[in-house]
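Late entry, S-adenosylmethionine complex.
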Amino acid sequence: MRTGGEMQICVSSTNAKDFNTSGNKRHCRLVVFFFFTFALPMQHNKKSTPSDSAAYHIPVMLQECLDGLDIRPEGVYVDVTFGGGGHSRGILSRLSKSGRLIAFDQDADAARNLPDDPRITFVHANFAEIKPFLRLHGVKEVDGILADLGVSSHQLDTAERGFSYRFEADLDMRMNIAEENTAAQILNGYSAARLQDVFSRYGEVRNSKTLAEAIVQQRGSRPIRTTSDLKAVMRPLIRGDEHRYLAQVFQALRMEVNKEMEVLEAFLCSCKDVLKPEGRIVVLTFHSLEDRAVKNFFKTGNCAGEPVRDFYGNIDRPFELMNKKAIEASAEEKRQNSRSQSAKLRIAKFVGHKFD
Ligand SMILES: C[S@@+](CC[C@H](N)C(=O)[O-])C[C@H]1O[C@@H](n2cnc3c(N)ncnc32)[C@H](O)[C@@H]1O
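Prediction complete; structure with ligand written out below:
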């Protein structure tokens, strides 16, 4: 999907081991994530058509995800991040005529990629609402759930959505355009302290306090409405690589606009209520904060990673992790689809509430 110079900083496959074992691992993953998410799609600003799902999004670790779901041909599965439908089509290919797939996406654009297949039901909703929407569609329990987090290439490459600093656009960044808060509203409405928190927590922006104060000062004379308004405030404050800095700030805003960490936690908690015993959950992440939350959740049943004990002090472990370490894309896939380079795949089995 994307190629480019900065990739060599830490993702050349020969360096992958060093980078995995070094103390800078988290930092490197963020660099990779930022670059592939924001800087590289520049070369692929292609509009998708229904038959052009590869331009909409290339599915990451497709076979690994399908294998992780351990698909029963007659089963009921949920793809909570339908996007271009690449993973969904893979699931359908492993289902029999009586299998069923429920596909969620909070972005109405994704619906254009729906295959003409009676086994699939599209739900235009946030995956945090998985439980009520499954009920609404008559589904109480499912055999497996797949989540491929973050934004699609289509969203990043559609200039007017305002996700990318590469284009001149209003600062929107909502995956669901029916939601209220845009990035511009956050920039013009949050206090300096709150903006600082967003930039440092989600973007690891080193001078987040200075940036937050500069934004508050600028908006006192004129609101910050567009990508170039924001870039004008940022320009004198850029530290290190310009693209990386811009990408860090834009990513932090996107995560705040879409409340990505909050909805991830709500979604994971709901999975406990909708998965059948032995049901599988497969989650692909592209950001270290997300991966940590998912790993903690599978280990302890909550994103904070704090074991829950019953009356007798036994620990409740609703999930069993299928792999000790997160799975990464093969060297070949990393070469062919650079977005896959920062991907971490975690697979778990719902074992019910077992105390040990
Ligand atoms: C990385 S793409 C998924 C690509 C997909 N697996 C494929 O093969 O084309 C993520 C998609 O999930 C959607 N999404 C992200 N967060 C969501 C949420 N909280 N609820 C519903 N959809 C969400 C985005 O709108 C986007 O279309």
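The pocket of S-adenosylmethionine is lined by residues 57, 59, 81, 83-87, 104-107, 110, 126-128, 148, 150-152, 175, 263 (CB under 6 Å). Will revisit in the morning.
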